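User: Predict structure, ligand FE2/S2 (inorganic) cluster.
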Amino acid sequence: MTFKPASWPRQLRSSEWFGGTSRDHIYHRSWMKNQGLPADLFDGRPVIGICNTWSQLTPCNAHLRDLAERVKHGIYEAGGLPLEFPVFSTGESALRPTAMLYRNLAAMDVEEAMRANPLDGVVLLAGCDKTTPALLMGAASTNLPSIVVSGGPMLNGWFRGERVGSGTALWQMSEDIKAGKMTQHDFLNAEQSMSRSPGSCNTMGTASTMASMAEALGMALSGNAAIPAVDSRRRVMAHLTGRRIVDMVKDDLKPSDVLTRSAFENAMRVNGAIGGSTNAVIHLLALAGRVGLDITLDDWDVQGREIPTIVNLMPSGKFLMEEFFYAGGLPVVIKALGDADKLHKDSLTVSGGSIWDEVKGVENWNEEVIHPLTAPLTKQGGIAVLKGNLAPNGAVLKPSAATESLLQHRGRAVVFEDIDDYKAKIDDEALDIDETCVMVLKNCGPRGYPGMAEVGNMGLPPKVLRKGITDMVRISDARMSGTAYGTVVLHTSPEAAVGGPLSIVRDGDMIELDVESRRLHLDISEEEMSKRLANWEPATKAPSSGYARLFHLHIEGADTGADFDFLKGCRGAEVPKDSH
Ligand code: FES
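Assistant: Predicted complex:
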């Protein structure tokens, strides 16, 4: 940690817009004053953007206008001028074909809005899955002082005395219906109890994982990830974040100071300890690309390999985010890693101090929710990165959400050419499949779907479910919801739509999965593989226009974060002067 705060006072970026007497300065100030802003607010104080992903179409973020007001209190209090602005909001539950199609678009929106406006620093208001990485990626590419405040998770869902975890319960109940264990009537009743309050998914799904990643990277204040959306302490967190960004601007504490290799290694280890979402792999790879760090899939495997999962939350365990908060939240997890020498303790955070300073005094209030490292929930946390002739560039699997007995498995492939093929066949009683088979789904990668849908945890065939079987090995180039579970191999790269080996798997081929040795193998000869690959033809053409064309032409593989090739790197905050 070598950060040295800049001297203060000094002239800030916003002064180029507001700090003078020319026609253009008057133009910039005068129009702002139509909002009732007193003249002395343009006296050279830090101008702070509140970058808000509020949207009623993103229900997980629908309360963020209220939180933005709390951020404003803190900014005013610390002597800054807050100005809230909206950006594209990527709502997981409603956007079609998948919210991931728009993560890069949202990141581009954030970056351009930050650069083009008279801002000295930004508070990033995030919640639902893709909103956190999109904001972080955009902010990293401008490198203006930035800090995340999350919307926080929903309260626990409860149905007939049982916890209802967002997403996790939905997948489970829909399988129970197919297996004849639950009625449609009960399913509809359960719907009423799933989403009890404002906030994001209450499981350790992608939203909670990404909030945890923001905190572990040092881009949010300590304790930010777990506070429930409706708890008064969430508002306090927003208030304190508003205060803090003003000082970050004065100190000139930028994302590039915080987002170092050590910070990413900490985040990857924390992801293992919390049993975090596989989606974090893609988002952190993309974020690392924005700050020019060479973080690879192999880093994920190395950093997570010796980290057990200690957080007993769905989908890996049984509790929910509300209980995680009451147990002490993410600081307890980070402290446990530090105590075990598995943390870069001196990593800088947005607090201006080290990550260890933030957590060294915290206590674990419930060891059933946050296990000690010596008695983990599962020994194998982290993300297993598999390689082999079926995934030359890698594929991922989350051991803590998988069935132990399937982590080493050889089975006959049952192939679905795309998601429509899967839907057409899966309920067919004549489908030649049993629980020993390996389900293979193609053409659901970043370019194939497009956007890389969360369909990798494809449901099992009803005839297998009726036997009481709840898991089978599944392989695809898709993603999986962070709320989902199973022995599911994801992100297989290169994807089928660009001619990766997944594209040439046929019904009846034998596939070997060996998680311990990180191997994913298609058991055909090299000659046969070469012959099939030579005959491969792309199933889709580039769309002729629109965002879909931009996406198709520039999207990169999951193994490097599925960013657009032209968005990688940090472009800074320089912008040409006015053209009036
Ligand atoms: Fe928004 Fe899960 S759907 S956080």
